[in-house]
Amino acid sequence: MSSPATATGFPVVDPSVHAAWLPDAALAPLGSRRVAVVVPDGGAPDVVAQTVRDEVAAATAAHGGAVVDPQQAGTADVVLAVRASTGAPAGAPAGSAAADPEAFTLTRALGMVTVTATTSHGLLHGLFHLVRLGEHAFTDPDGTWTHAPTTALRMLDHWDNVAVHPVMGQVERGYSGGSIFYDDGQVRADLTRVAQYSRLLAASGINRVAINNVNVGPRESLLLTDDLDEVARIAAAFRPYGIRTHLSVSWASPVRLGGLTTSDPLDEDVRAWWRAAADRVWATIPDFGGFVVKADSEGQPGPFAYGRSHADGANMLAAAVAPHGGLVHWRAFVYDHTQDWRDRKTDRARAAYDHFAPHDGEFADNVIVQIKHGPLDFQVREAVSPAIAALPRTRLAAEFQVTTEYLGHQKHAVYLGRMWSELLRFPYWGEGSATMADVAAGRHPESDGTGGDGTRAGGFAAVSNVGDDVFWTGHPFAQANLYAWGRLTWDPTLDPIGILDEWVSLTFPGADPRVRETVHAVLDESWETYERYTAPLGVCFMVKPHTHYGPDPDGYEYSPWGTYHFADRDGVGVDRTRATGTGFTGQYPAPWRDVYESLETVPDELLLFFHHVPYGHVLRSGKTVIQHVYDTHFEGLERVHAAVEAWQAAADAFPPDVAERVTERFAEQVRSATDWRDVVNTYFFRKSGIPDAAGRTIY
């Protein structure tokens, strides 16, 4: 295998690795036609434009089409063209198609398909749009369509460690093997897989990647200094597909790496150290994206040690990277992880709002405050984070998790597209109002001076689920989550089941119809299935500490990490009301602050997230809480068995390697779901003393 650094053209593909949603056959509709690529010669080499040419050349060579000389573009079936912009119309909002360098327009007329863009990046996205459409790109009715991303920042954060961590391993919260970037404490010599990965990401819509763990260890700190040339090699593998590289950095770097005695953000020597570090990074990697920072969180150092705010800390870094057009992604995952479980007023869910809302408007324009979609930690069901709505004068990124830390470790078949879609569409100010996706795109209704016009756009970030496994994601079906993340960051209004259908069409082109039917039977409602056999009604965690896999209802109940459900003989749930609880409901804007406050209006699925209630409390379904727990856990396992039956009936229609791996994973899912059913049901039976009305076996 050749390294991307020495390869003469793209795509660079390792045939021993699963092709995911870009198998050779997926490019057949395009590759079987006559295609012209028209890109003006701008003088400086345009590596992304060359990627478009190489993709077209490879596809046509494989499928019998032809590359048409740009001068003869009028004779082609397909024309891919960069055309100079005449400028966005006066008053065109930021992020609109007219102003977006990644936008493209597809026109189908008189037997010819034309994709135009003002940049090669837009043209690359247009190329992959044709691939997604398949034959429909050429046979559907004539018309013109313009596509532009909702936001310019669509990011994946890799929690990869250069040196294998003694507890967390090579990839923290990774369930797909080792790192595609690092091996044996070094950046890999052969980065073919990184180049192949960049192609997959570009085809789904991702345009930025952070390449190391936010928990930056001593070895990982050196990526900023000694190993910067190695980071440049990784950036070179991403660059041809329009993807910019970011680094997670330690707040303590001036002490760890620079020999200073302090990391105080107001200390001039510290500020000078970071300016010099930024100058060195951008001199080595001119299109470098910026820094990701986890500070004052779970033992990571931060500005609190010096009596400074997070705005002080973020702005110091922002000043260092601003001359280079760089960004600082500052994570808002800051909370007390040494709290006393006896204290019912200290509430981890409040933390992001309490730490960051008072500093709204203080962060520099090139700081992106990155806030988890929920106030806790990527649970199967938790309320949306109120902090996302509370900073109208701050650029925000909504943070998600593609890796299934709390949803089955990619051993369970769980498609997250529907979950993410529900969260991204959440209307923070009531039905029809601005959504989580709107806020991330800079359309906060309370933005001062901008009217929420996208000027203060942030974006989307998520923890990657990729490793060096042959299938990339451990479970072949977990590829659908990675694909869906890219597609939803490009357009959060897309139908998540439609996205799943796209993934099936691309990953298994020309397959037996049973393949599509089976994937939908297994994955369409798999998120709800997983919820049924795990933590009920907005109760969070209930997992084994540290690994976060498998049932342990009291695993964190007396822990300093602050993740309690307070189950006792009388009831269960966390009182987060203003009237009698932690006051968390007061962090939401109207109407949700009152919807969640009241037992009469709180949604059943979040009941125990906001309220402590008796086991006999009656839900809107007419069932009591305890009977709901029993019924859903039996039903959840039954749904897993039904998915297995659907799989077994059609496994022979899938490629043998996929069939073998999925069959193996289903065996573990059945075992684990059975464990969840029995442990959770028995736990609540022993707490409540109330038997199952259906008389089923509870141990």
TrEMBL record:
Keywords: Hydrolase. The keyword Hydrolase applies. It comes from the Bacteria. Residues 146-472 form the Glycosyl hydrolase family 67 catalytic domain. GO terms for biological process: xylan catabolic process. InterPro entries: A-glucoronidase_C_sf (IPR037054), GH (IPR017853), Glyco_hydro_67_C (IPR011099), Glyco_hydro_67_cat (IPR011100), Hex-like_dom2 (IPR029018). Residues 473-696 form the Glycosyl hydrolase family 67 C-terminal domain. SUPFAM superfamilies: (Trans)glycosidases, beta-N-acetylhexosaminidase-like domain. One of its GO terms (molecular function) is alpha-glucuronidase activity. One of its GO terms (cellular component) is extracellular region. This is Alpha-glucuronidase. It comes from Xylanimonas oleitrophica.
